[in-house]
Design a protein that fits this description.
This protein has 193 residues and is an alpha/beta fold. The protein has 4 helices and 7 strands. Strands 1, 2, 3, 4, 5, 6 and 7 form a 7-stranded parallel beta sheet that branches. It has helices spanning 25-38, 118-124, 137-150, 167-179; strands at 2-8, 45-51, 94-98, 127-135, 154-164, 183-185, 189-190.
């Protein structure tokens, strides 16, 4: 069986200068690129997820509560929805888009251009172990890791290559992931955007 790196939502809107910036996001993008260059044989497969909103309904709000509602972000066709320029995407084999018409936090809610979901793609490629990196530790990384474990993948999160929104929510996310059997390595980046 094989392993895969899942790069979660390393998009312009989630990095410094974006509409829903997470402090340290650009550094995470560059760090992932350095790791891919330093350890080219570490993973059999590399995939990425994207928040990819067309009209996600109540997910956007003019006065967001930052729990269930958020400022407009990662709208299809905008620069904010693109991968951060410091993320090297040459090894990315497939991109899974999520959240077109409803809120979606987990990459396992997404689909490739041909409609295939992430879990099916990984199984079709013989993957049984996944490592996750990306943004944000306490939201989409957490949701993707929990779903990966639920789907039966041996799941690890490389926390040094994740950026969290806030200490409290990141701590809760880490406890939830550990409770689900996810292996956590390192410490997440948490800093003001």
């Amino acid at each position: 069986m094989g392993n895969a790196l899942i790069i979660v939502d390393v998009q312009n809107d989630f990095c410094e200068g974006g509409s829903l910036a997470v402090g340290g996001g650009a550094g995470v993008a560059a760090g992932i690129s350095r790791l891919l260059a330093a350890e080219p044989g570490r993973w059999d497969h590399v995939v990425a997820t994207k928040d990819y909103h067309v009209d996600p309904g109540g997910h956007f709000a003019d006065q967001p509560n930052f729990v269930d509602t958020w400022p407009r972000h990662c709208v299809v066709g905008t620069a904010g929805s693109e991968f951060h320029p410091d993320l090297e995407t040459g090894r990315v084999e497939e991109i899974f888009h999520k959240g077109e018409h409803a809120a979606a936090y987990s990459g396992f809610e997404g689909h490739a251009a041909d409609g295939e979901c992430l879990a099916d793609w990984l199984r079709r490629h013989g993957v049984d172990r996944v490592e996750l990196v990306g943004i944000a530790t306490d939201h989409c990384v957490r949701a993707t890791a929990l779903d990966a474990a639920r789907e039966g993948f041996d799941t690890s999160v490389l926390l040094d290559l994740t950026a969290g929104v806030a200490p409290d929510t990141t701590d809760l996310a880490m406890r939830a992931m550990e409770g689900a059997g996810v292996t956590l390595r390192g410490e997440p980046v948490i800093r003001a955007a």
